[in-house]
Amino acid sequence: MDVIPPRNFPVGEAALREALGHVENGAATLGFGRDTQLKLMLITEELYTNVINHGAAASRVEIALRRDGSGQAVLNFADDGTPFNPLDQLPHASHDLPPDERPVGGLGVVLLDGFCAAVHYHRAGGRNCLEMFLRP
Fold first, then answer.
1. What is the largest CA-CA distance in the chain?
2. Distance between CA atoms of 60 and 133, rounded to whole angstroms?
């Protein structure tokens, strides 16, 4: 199986645990090792927590997972909140500053930069959509 179909979750702390289990089990089903499973779970937790804490008007999150033709893990994450592209919000260089000089927030972008070979954002069907290609 190369695709774990999209699954919807309500926005909230209780559903976060269920979403993480979905990603972990899906990654295992696709044959990804524990290291990749943990990276996918950490990315999911960061994005989901941001939707819970900052996703204005968001009520649902959709998560899908697949293995592309080169064997790379691809995570799709969408929410129905107001338009927001996290890739445009903060400079990627802020992680080079000492911790006490960094702006609050923005480490999720650093996480994506570190774990992903490519990340794409688009708005479709009233949803913020991120497609993330993990580094091999």
1. 46
2. 22
Where do the structural domains in the chain lie, given as residue ranges? 3-134
Alpha carbon distance 53, 56 (integer Å): 8
Give me the residues of the chain with pLDDT under 70, please.
1, 89-97, 99, 101-107
Phi, then psi, of 33 in degrees rounded to 5: -70, 170
Judge contact between 37 and 50, C-beta under 8 A.
no
pLDDT, tens only, 70-87:
999 999 999 999 999 988
CA atoms within 13 A on the CB side of 30: 26
* Cα distance between the two ends of the chain: 19
DSSP lists the bridge partners of residue 77 as 63, 130
Overall fold of domain 3-134: Heat Shock Protein 90 (3.30.565)
Say how far apart CA 52 and CA 72 lie, in whole Å: 28
Report the predicted TM-score, pTM, of the whole model to 2 decimal places: 0.89
